[in-house]
Amino acid sequence: MIPIPESKHPRIIIIGGGFAGVKLVKKLKNLPVQIVLFDRNNYHTFQPLLYQVATAGLEPDSIADPLRKQLEPVKNFFFRMAEVYSVDGASNMIHTEIGVLDYDYLVIATGSRTNFFGNESIMQHAFALKQIPQALDLRSHILQNFEAATITEDPLEKKSRMNIVIVGGGPTGVEVAGALGELKRSILPKDYPELDFSKMSIILLEGSSSLLGGMSDFASEKALKYLKKFHVDVYLDTLVKSYDGHSALLSNGEEINTHTVVWAAGVKGNYPDGLKESSLERDRIVVDHYNRVAEYDNIFAIGDIAMMKSEGYENGHPMLAPVAIQQGNHMAMNLKRLLKGEELKPFKYFDKGSMATVGRNKAVVDLPGKSSLGGFPAWVIWMFVHLISIIGFRNKLIVFLNWVWNYFTYDKGTRLIIRKFIPKKLRKTEPELT
Amino acid sequence: MIPIPESKHPRIIIIGGGFAGVKLVKKLKNLPVQIVLFDRNNYHTFQPLLYQVATAGLEPDSIADPLRKQLEPVKNFFFRMAEVYSVDGASNMIHTEIGVLDYDYLVIATGSRTNFFGNESIMQHAFALKQIPQALDLRSHILQNFEAATITEDPLEKKSRMNIVIVGGGPTGVEVAGALGELKRSILPKDYPELDFSKMSIILLEGSSSLLGGMSDFASEKALKYLKKFHVDVYLDTLVKSYDGHSALLSNGEEINTHTVVWAAGVKGNYPDGLKESSLERDRIVVDHYNRVAEYDNIFAIGDIAMMKSEGYENGHPMLAPVAIQQGNHMAMNLKRLLKGEELKPFKYFDKGSMATVGRNKAVVDLPGKSSLGGFPAWVIWMFVHLISIIGFRNKLIVFLNWVWNYFTYDKGTRLIIRKFIPKKLRKTEPELT
Fold it and tell me: Where are the domains of chain A?
């Protein structure tokens, strides 16, 4: 049994310190409960800006916030840094890497992870972008390749080390591609005057016929236009079939020589073992309108991992931060009602719109309703919304300063290979990042 | 042969992008020479603040500056990220991990590395603090131990995971100990309310009878007094004999249970192979008053690695940043003279004083001449001198903001375990950091 002090209050275990979990803990602050939060990291990750860490725009520490510090004001709160392996609903226990613990209520907020759809070759060689170490690996890998490009005399290898393929035309794919385009246009040619950047291709692959699938036609078309300005080649209706670390084979038969493939083509729920088969659907946990997991009384799920079918969201809500934050909030309210013996209230998602940025002065925003924005106004809105969402004043300030710096100097300060990237096949001792 | 474009100008190879190497390259800016800089990292490390990265006060990216960016204004400049293995003075060649390259002039500026004085057990288990990954390892290791302390029920293990021993009472040892004392006093008890911090010991060991050996008696005594205020126990005239990762055996027979030993007790020169025996002394390269390596005509050495015997410095200059910067400057001037066929000028070290900080409002400064300062004025001078010395305006700004933040909030923002520390014996694939 994991040592947690005795309490006369019911124990709520929360798994995952992402947007949903952190919001929930904060909102439970003054309740007569004991809260135990599990996360495999000791920090919260602000995932929407991971791509800026990967592309040398931000330092990793500015998008991470220590969970213990963040949640210090919450009384009767305990944090345990550990991976949760499985849930035993029959005996109200969870099994973790540091032992077992029993709960009165369990809230699963484990988010999502990269979905490679079973393609082994891609899983082995492509870069995912869901965690800070992955972003740092990608940053190091790209820079290592440019260093290597300066010392090879083989023109094919030179090109292959400079080329970058991004798979998936959703917000992450578009944002990574745009940021790389900016690097190519303004920064890398100054760092590597020896290299011919007209030979470098940044290619964004999208399987469907338009970018930013969940957004308006206006947004898709603008994004496509903006990406061209940033020297990104967009291939629509194109998939990658296989990738061996040097050459990517596309569904149109084309072969692209590249040392770097970024995989942003899908995520799936990241749930612990032990839940009943009938509680799961499409790699997510099925919940009712109160976020209660199907087949259980005292287990809930919130955020990306939860699939709540409702009007307009027949396959569950989009796996986005705003849904997670709203469900965290709502869950706290419902737990409060539950403890008082009151009836629970159904969750209703308030869609505030969606957005994606391509680069300097270029973004797209779909407002609630039918209107959309592009260009500079959209870019300012995008920055403002992200800045206010970053947890912690210090991080807000550092990110803001970096952005101001990048904007006026056309520079990105963190082109650092702090730990050289070691390919997965050589990495025997590091935990697999999935 | 490493591919470097042909040039009609003589080629100067510089090994090492530390204080000496960077200063030299910058000063060679407008000379009719081709410059090739080698470093195993793509960034310059501001070593004097490494201890603040290790103790969660600063993000690593704010004390690292990309060499390519830094040296962009220098024309006819080439950077190669590679370790230099050896020097072949007879054929004017260096051998590196990416191939060989010939030079007209060679400047060795490879600095120093940790000296464990052959103690295998300490080398295996203690933490050194000369490189950014080492600082990040130490930060992660300390935080991982606090996480582990919360889940052990064995009181001895709990104490051992909280205890920290620092070996070496020079500036680095004093600074690390002070910063850890601050963490213990103001920050960790808030993060870990479950732990009893009266059980945590921070012990600084110094083999001689006073701290800060190179500084004034005033400074030594003040540092000792300040450290006590920060809850650091200082053991003078005490060495560590062995350490197995859990228990440190001291020269006074005492045994201290600790999972963390920081080794700040010595450095030694870090020179490439191949130099003549007679060019070396006490792990440094012997140079004349023009920084020319003994026994060679066109090989020079500057910074920590260079041992120039001169009046008042019979065993060479202290291995400090100001010496390196002054030698970098002077070397540029002498290379200029050499190219013009003029006589070289001897180097003379201008001692601007020395300083060390213990923590908030507490530092010691020995000014040139006989006067010394302590307390708040010394602390302000220390901060000012370090801020203006950090390379790059963006880094200056971010460090300054972090310090202001830490000062007013009594908080340190970067208590992050971004990559879990893996003990050396389990690390098979990562390069050994020495």
Answer: 11-40+82-114+268-340, 120-265+361-426
